Amino acid sequence: MAFSARRSLASGLSRHLSRRLHPSVSHLLPSHHDDPSENPSPPTQPPPLPSALRSPSRSQALGLPLPFGLLHASHRSFSTSPRSTDELDVSAGVLSDAASSVSVPADVLADAAASVPVSVPAPFPGEVAAAAADSFAPVAALQHLIDGIHSLTGLNWWACIALTSLLIRTLTVPLLLNQMKATVKLNAMRPEIEAINLEMRTSTDPQSVLEGKRKLGELFLRHGVTPLTPLKGLFIQAPIFMSFFFAISNMVEKVPSFKGGGIYWFTDLTTPDELLILPVLTSLTFLVTIELNMQDGMEGNPMLKTMKNFSRVMAALTIPFTMSFPKAIFFYWVTSNLFSLGYGFVLRKPAVRSFLDLPPIETQFAPAQQPTFNLFGASKSIPAAGSSIAESDRSSSVLSQRFSDLENRAKSRRESQD
């Protein structure tokens, strides 16, 4: 009994001294002599931190300006004593409030990301070939030509379209010169054509009408022209324009790199020009071309004024009709108009006209001497004030000749009856 009492007294004194010397970590000191009933309950685990605050590198990656104490709080080893749990809850709440402020920098980052321009698709081999696979042969060939110039020169798409337009228009120059020479020949033939048509109109004999048509055919064949010669330029230009229109429209729809194929205000070639600069420029160049070049080779044609007025109306309607077209089409259109303007300016030079065997502009026929053609070879003359007297004299002489022929036929019939 005495031994047990001394042992109990020594154990109590040891516990008392350990608590006085180490009061803050007394629960961590091992006690092999304590009774199980006297041992403190196992420390409760603190609530887990939110996942956003579990790793300090995440807050650093977001660049959060956390206070110094809060930044190191995530690295602190928390005590497992019951008293430190409340402090841990307070720290976790503060950190949760700080984490809720992440939305503000996130919004700023979102706005900054929205302000960055969208990357333009880079051209890749075969994109034009894939776009031209289902196109008509001339349209597909034109797309491959534009792509070839793009690959060879490395220029943007708008410049490649303009260069292709210049190339095609240059190749059509011989055809346009041939059309102009044929039109000049047709104007020179008008006096003969007018005389034949006058005989056909004043004659009532069907044989005379057939003879006049035969003479007109021989006259056209001898000079190598037809009544449709003035429309040859339209037959040349219309298919080229349609091929360019369909080719560029198909590339706008199916070639992704067209979105960045321009410069300045027309970077995206697949959208209309909201500033209307390109439609207005197209209309102005077309109008200037009409005023300066439309009479080349057609001097003396009475239909010239009507054609000019019609073309002026079309130039004015170009703006509302084309304002919804993609920008890429205008680089063919404007380039073609500028080429026509330069082409007409060069052909006005006397030295150039002499070299090309074209008559000087000053010596071409006046409109008063020219008839109007229809599509069937016949023509209708438009008299002028200066030539009305000559035509009336000629008509009276023809009528006199006709009356004399009728009288002679009547006399011959009477003699045959007698």
Topology as a string of helices (H) and strands (E) = HHHHHHHHHHHHHHHHHEEH
* Global mean pLDDT: 71
What does the overall shape look like? Answer: elongated
Structural class: mainly alpha
Q: How many β strands by DSSP?
A: 2
**Which percent range describes the beta-strand content?**
under 5%
Oligomeric state of the chains?
Answer: single chain
SS field, number of helical segments: 18
Largest sheet: 2 strands, antiparallel
Provide tags for this entry.
418 residues; mainly alpha; two-stranded antiparallel sheet; 2 strands; Membrane insertase YidC/Oxa/ALB C-terminal domain-containing protein; membrane
Description of the structure:
- There is one protein chain.
- Residues 23-40, 49-92, 98-106, 108-118 and 363-392 have low confidence and may be disordered.
- By secondary structure, the chain is mostly helical.
- The chain has a two-stranded antiparallel ribbon.
- 18% of the residues are buried.
- Helix content is 64%, strand content 1%.
- Residues 39-50 have a biased composition (Pro residues).
- Residues 157-348 form the Membrane insertase YidC/Oxa/ALB C-terminal domain.
Topology diagram in text:
Layout: H1 2-21, H2 51-54, H3 56-61, H4 68-73, H5 82-100, H6 103-115, H7 127-131, H8 137-153, H9 157-171, H10 173-188, H11 190-202, H12 206-223, H13 232-254, H14 277-293, H15 304-322, H16 327-347, H17 350-355, E1 371-373, E2 379-381, H18 388-417
Helix pairs in contact: 8-9, 8-13, 9-16, 11-12, 13-16, 14-15, 14-16
Keywords: Membrane, Transmembrane, Transmembrane helix
Organism: Oryza meridionalis
Region (Disordered): 12-57, 387-418
